[in-house]
Specification:
207 residues, alpha/beta, GMP Synthetase, Chain A, domain 3, 4 helices, methionine adenosyltransferase activity, AdoMet_synthase_3
Protein backbone atom coordinates (compact mmCIF):
# COMPACT_ATOMS: atom_id res chain seq x y z
CA UNK A 1 0.00 0.00 0.00
CA UNK A 2 0.95 3.65 -0.32
CA UNK A 3 0.58 4.38 3.40
CA UNK A 4 4.09 3.86 4.77
CA UNK A 5 5.38 5.60 7.88
CA UNK A 6 8.94 5.39 9.19
CA UNK A 7 9.97 6.47 12.67
CA UNK A 8 13.65 6.75 13.48
CA UNK A 9 15.33 6.92 16.87
CA UNK A 10 19.09 7.28 17.40
CA UNK A 11 20.50 6.46 20.82
CA UNK A 12 24.24 7.18 20.65
CA UNK A 13 25.47 4.73 17.98
CA UNK A 14 22.32 2.63 17.79
CA UNK A 15 19.48 3.41 15.38
CA UNK A 16 16.00 1.92 15.67
CA UNK A 17 13.62 2.16 12.72
CA UNK A 18 9.94 1.38 13.23
CA UNK A 19 8.02 0.99 9.97
CA UNK A 20 4.24 0.89 9.62
CA UNK A 21 3.47 -0.45 6.16
CA UNK A 22 -0.12 -1.08 5.10
CA UNK A 23 -0.39 -4.29 3.08
CA UNK A 24 -3.18 -4.73 0.50
CA UNK A 25 -4.96 -7.98 1.30
CA UNK A 26 -5.99 -8.94 -2.24
CA UNK A 27 -2.35 -9.16 -3.32
CA UNK A 28 -1.48 -11.75 -0.67
CA UNK A 29 -2.42 -15.43 -0.73
CA UNK A 30 -2.51 -15.75 3.04
CA UNK A 31 -0.83 -15.01 6.33
CA UNK A 32 2.24 -17.06 5.38
CA UNK A 33 2.89 -14.77 2.41
CA UNK A 34 2.16 -11.69 4.53
CA UNK A 35 4.80 -12.78 7.02
CA UNK A 36 7.28 -13.64 4.25
CA UNK A 37 6.86 -10.24 2.58
CA UNK A 38 7.22 -8.51 5.94
CA UNK A 39 10.49 -10.33 6.62
CA UNK A 40 11.69 -9.54 3.10
CA UNK A 41 10.90 -5.85 3.67
CA UNK A 42 12.83 -5.91 6.95
CA UNK A 43 15.95 -7.34 5.30
CA UNK A 44 15.66 -4.93 2.35
CA UNK A 45 15.58 -1.92 4.68
CA UNK A 46 18.61 -3.25 6.57
CA UNK A 47 20.52 -3.51 3.29
CA UNK A 48 19.61 0.06 2.37
CA UNK A 49 20.71 1.47 5.72
CA UNK A 50 24.14 -0.13 5.38
CA UNK A 51 24.76 2.21 2.44
CA UNK A 52 24.23 5.25 4.65
CA UNK A 53 25.55 4.39 8.10
CA UNK A 54 27.95 2.10 9.90
CA UNK A 55 25.90 2.34 13.10
CA UNK A 56 23.97 -0.64 14.44
CA UNK A 57 20.47 -0.54 12.93
CA UNK A 58 17.41 -2.40 14.22
CA UNK A 59 14.38 -2.58 11.91
CA UNK A 60 10.86 -3.30 13.19
CA UNK A 61 7.97 -3.67 10.74
CA UNK A 62 4.27 -3.52 11.71
CA UNK A 63 4.94 -3.90 15.42
CA UNK A 64 1.23 -3.90 16.28
CA UNK A 65 0.79 -7.29 14.62
CA UNK A 66 -0.35 -10.06 16.95
CA UNK A 67 -0.46 -13.35 15.07
CA UNK A 68 -2.04 -15.27 17.97
CA UNK A 69 -4.99 -12.86 18.00
CA UNK A 70 -5.21 -12.70 14.21
CA UNK A 71 -4.13 -9.05 14.11
CA UNK A 72 -2.29 -7.98 10.93
CA UNK A 73 -1.82 -4.68 9.08
CA UNK A 74 -4.02 -5.73 6.15
CA UNK A 75 -6.08 -3.14 4.30
CA UNK A 76 -8.36 -2.88 1.28
CA UNK A 77 -7.10 0.47 0.00
CA UNK A 78 -3.49 0.38 1.21
CA UNK A 79 -3.95 3.21 3.70
CA UNK A 80 -4.88 3.52 7.37
CA UNK A 81 -7.48 6.15 6.42
CA UNK A 82 -10.09 3.43 5.90
CA UNK A 83 -10.13 2.99 9.70
CA UNK A 84 -11.39 6.55 10.10
CA UNK A 85 -8.42 7.86 12.07
CA UNK A 86 -6.83 10.16 9.54
CA UNK A 87 -7.09 13.38 11.57
CA UNK A 88 -7.65 15.70 8.64
CA UNK A 89 -6.78 19.06 10.18
CA UNK A 90 -4.18 21.76 9.65
CA UNK A 91 -0.71 20.69 10.71
CA UNK A 92 0.05 24.21 11.92
CA UNK A 93 -2.35 23.96 14.86
CA UNK A 94 -0.20 23.50 17.97
CA UNK A 95 -1.90 22.40 21.19
CA UNK A 96 -0.03 25.15 23.07
CA UNK A 97 -1.21 27.83 20.65
CA UNK A 98 2.33 28.57 19.47
CA UNK A 99 4.18 28.16 16.19
CA UNK A 100 7.87 27.95 17.06
CA UNK A 101 10.09 27.47 13.98
CA UNK A 102 13.28 28.31 15.91
CA UNK A 103 12.58 25.72 18.62
CA UNK A 104 11.76 21.99 18.71
CA UNK A 105 8.17 21.23 17.80
CA UNK A 106 6.06 18.36 16.54
CA UNK A 107 4.28 18.47 13.20
CA UNK A 108 1.67 16.06 14.50
CA UNK A 109 -1.88 17.39 14.35
CA UNK A 110 -3.41 17.31 17.82
CA UNK A 111 -6.94 18.11 16.70
CA UNK A 112 -8.98 15.62 14.72
CA UNK A 113 -7.51 12.53 16.40
CA UNK A 114 -9.33 10.26 18.81
CA UNK A 115 -8.41 10.90 22.47
CA UNK A 116 -8.55 7.24 23.48
CA UNK A 117 -5.45 5.75 21.91
CA UNK A 118 -4.00 8.10 19.29
CA UNK A 119 -0.59 9.13 20.57
CA UNK A 120 -0.46 12.02 18.10
CA UNK A 121 -3.09 13.66 20.27
CA UNK A 122 -2.36 12.23 23.71
CA UNK A 123 1.43 12.68 23.75
CA UNK A 124 1.27 16.26 22.48
CA UNK A 125 -1.13 17.18 25.27
CA UNK A 126 0.81 15.12 27.82
CA UNK A 127 4.10 16.81 26.90
CA UNK A 128 2.44 20.20 27.26
CA UNK A 129 1.11 19.34 30.74
CA UNK A 130 4.51 18.07 31.87
CA UNK A 131 6.24 21.20 30.59
CA UNK A 132 3.72 23.52 32.24
CA UNK A 133 3.94 21.77 35.60
CA UNK A 134 7.74 21.79 35.51
CA UNK A 135 7.74 25.56 35.01
CA UNK A 136 5.13 26.04 37.75
CA UNK A 137 6.80 23.85 40.39
CA UNK A 138 10.51 24.03 39.64
CA UNK A 139 12.29 27.30 40.29
CA UNK A 140 14.83 28.57 37.80
CA UNK A 141 13.57 27.18 34.48
CA UNK A 142 14.00 29.54 31.54
CA UNK A 143 12.78 27.11 28.87
CA UNK A 144 11.74 23.46 28.90
CA UNK A 145 11.18 21.03 26.04
CA UNK A 146 9.43 17.68 26.47
CA UNK A 147 9.74 15.02 23.78
CA UNK A 148 7.77 11.77 23.87
CA UNK A 149 8.29 9.04 21.29
CA UNK A 150 5.89 6.12 20.95
CA UNK A 151 6.30 2.77 19.26
CA UNK A 152 3.35 1.21 17.48
CA UNK A 153 1.88 -1.71 19.39
CA UNK A 154 3.27 -0.69 22.77
CA UNK A 155 1.09 0.49 25.71
CA UNK A 156 0.50 4.23 25.77
CA UNK A 157 1.97 4.53 29.26
CA UNK A 158 5.19 2.92 28.04
CA UNK A 159 6.64 5.29 25.43
CA UNK A 160 9.85 4.38 23.62
CA UNK A 161 11.44 7.56 24.93
CA UNK A 162 10.46 10.48 27.15
CA UNK A 163 13.04 13.23 27.52
CA UNK A 164 12.94 16.60 29.21
CA UNK A 165 15.40 19.29 28.12
CA UNK A 166 15.84 22.25 30.47
CA UNK A 167 17.46 25.59 29.80
CA UNK A 168 17.97 27.11 33.26
CA UNK A 169 18.01 30.72 34.27
CA UNK A 170 21.40 32.16 35.11
CA UNK A 171 22.72 30.81 38.41
CA UNK A 172 20.54 27.68 38.52
CA UNK A 173 21.78 24.08 38.27
CA UNK A 174 19.92 21.61 36.04
CA UNK A 175 21.15 18.63 38.07
CA UNK A 176 19.39 19.97 41.16
CA UNK A 177 16.15 20.36 39.18
CA UNK A 178 16.33 16.85 37.67
CA UNK A 179 14.76 14.79 40.52
CA UNK A 180 11.64 16.97 40.71
CA UNK A 181 11.32 17.14 36.93
CA UNK A 182 11.63 13.36 36.65
CA UNK A 183 8.98 12.88 39.35
CA UNK A 184 6.57 15.19 37.52
CA UNK A 185 7.11 13.35 34.23
CA UNK A 186 6.70 9.92 35.86
CA UNK A 187 3.52 10.97 37.66
CA UNK A 188 1.90 12.28 34.48
CA UNK A 189 2.95 9.18 32.56
CA UNK A 190 1.39 6.92 35.20
CA UNK A 191 -1.92 8.78 34.81
CA UNK A 192 -1.83 9.26 31.06
CA UNK A 193 -5.50 8.20 30.87
CA UNK A 194 -6.32 11.45 32.67
CA UNK A 195 -5.47 13.22 29.41
CA UNK A 196 -8.29 11.35 27.67
CA UNK A 197 -10.78 12.33 30.37
CA UNK A 198 -9.65 15.97 30.31
CA UNK A 199 -10.11 16.13 26.53
CA UNK A 200 -13.57 14.56 26.69
CA UNK A 201 -14.60 16.96 29.46
CA UNK A 202 -13.30 19.96 27.52
CA UNK A 203 -10.59 20.81 30.06
CA UNK A 204 -7.73 20.70 27.53
CA UNK A 205 -7.38 22.80 24.40
CA UNK A 206 -6.08 21.12 21.26
CA UNK A 207 -5.17 24.31 19.39
Amino acid sequence: GEDVKVMGLREKDKITLTIACAFVGRHLSGIEEYDAVKRELTEWVKEITSDYTEREVTVNVNTADDYERGCYYLTVTGTSAENGDDGSVGRGNRCNGLITPARPMSMEATSGKNPINHVGKIYNLLANRIANECVEKVEGIQEVYVRILSQIGKPIDQPRTLSVQIIPKKGYDVEKMAPTVKRIADEWLSRVTDITEMVIEGKLRTF
